[in-house]
């Protein structure tokens, strides 16, 4: 059995970004980039399944610029066996990514596809669902527990009313939530080993996928800054301000 894990290169979660001066997007020049945290959880879970003997191979795949190789090397250092980069400088939207992943799924024929429930840069939460629809595969989103056995995947997930458990016939698509696991610390020996693991680079054209953006961003702007708070000497003044300024009383 083979697991295909999709990973994305995003701005590090600890970095504060700003908007470009011309308002065309977020300024990510000279900022630290990392693997999307939800995708890192997906890689960790796939590696754990391999260590438990449930699967035989973990393949990491990413779509994007050449620097995404660094993200794939991180996945390889966690424990993935090989990696595939679909290289393009085009700004990829969720549907284009889903189509690219579908092409890789058709080629690799994995028993399970895992990816984070969303990316922390755009928070779209669409790619996994779109991939399942395009590939005609069963899906389970927001997984907090995954068990693979006997050609099936049992997935537990949190819903508004509590917990829900799904049984999927493999192959299937699973998106991961934060509660699924805690990714391991990547050691220096594993980082060195990752440099020797195979990393294949393909182009969207070779996969027969058009990644031209379907949506156009007109403008990006920062939210308005909150005004500073005001100290009042007593409750009477506070009530008066709530009446006259805030108009909540």
TrEMBL record:
Cofactor(s) needed by this chain: AMP
GO BP field: carboxylic acid catabolic process
Recorded GO MF terms: electron transfer activity
Keyword terms: Electron transport, Transport
Family annotation (Pfam families): ETF
PROSITE patterns: ETF_BETA
Domain Electron transfer flavoprotein alpha/beta-subunit N-terminal: 23-211
Domain of life: Bacteria
InterPro entries found in the cross-reference section: ET-Flavoprotein_bsu_CS, ETF_a/b_N, ETF_b, ETF_beta_N, Rossmann-like_a/b/a_fold
Protein family (similarity comment): Belongs to the ETF beta-subunit/FixA family.
Role according to the record: The electron transfer flavoprotein serves as a specific electron acceptor for other dehydrogenases. It transfers the electrons to the main respiratory chain via ETF-ubiquinone oxidoreductase (ETF dehydrogenase).
Subunit description: Heterodimer of an alpha and a beta subunit.
Name assigned to this protein: Electron transfer flavoprotein subunit beta
Source organism: Paraburkholderia pallida
């Amino acid at each position: 059995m083979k697991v295909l894990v999709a990973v994305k290169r995003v701005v590090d979660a600890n970095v504060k970004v700003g908007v470009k001066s011309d308002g065309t997007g977020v300024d990510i020049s000279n900022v630290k980039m990392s693997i999307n945290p939800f995708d890192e959880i997906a890689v960790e879970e796939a590696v754990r399944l391999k260590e438990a003997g449930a699967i035989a191979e973990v393949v990491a795949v990413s779509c994007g610029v050449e620097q995404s190789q660094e993200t794939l090397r991180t996945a390889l250092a966690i424990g993935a066996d090989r990696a595939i980069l679909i290289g393009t400088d085009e700004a990829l939207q969720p549907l284009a990514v889903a189509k690219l992943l579908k092409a890789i799924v058709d080629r690799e024929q994995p028993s399970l596809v895992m990816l984070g429930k969303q990316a922390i840069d755009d928070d779209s939460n669409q790619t996994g669902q779109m991939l399942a629809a395009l590939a005609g595969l069963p899906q389970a989103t927001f997984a907090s527990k995954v068990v693979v056995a006997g050609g099936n995947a049992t997935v537990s997930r949190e819903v508004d009313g509590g917990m829900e458990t799904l049984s999927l016939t493999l192959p299937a698509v699973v998106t991961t939530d934060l509660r699924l696991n805690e990714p391991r610390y990547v050691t220096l020996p594993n980082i060195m080993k990752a440099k020797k693991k195979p990393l294949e680079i393909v182009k969207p054209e070779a996969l027969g996928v058009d990644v031209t953006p379907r949506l156009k961003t007109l403008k990006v702007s920062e939210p308005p800054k909150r005004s500073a708070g005001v100290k009042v000497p007593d409750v009477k003044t506070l009530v008066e301000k709530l009446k006259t300024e805030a108009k909540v009383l």
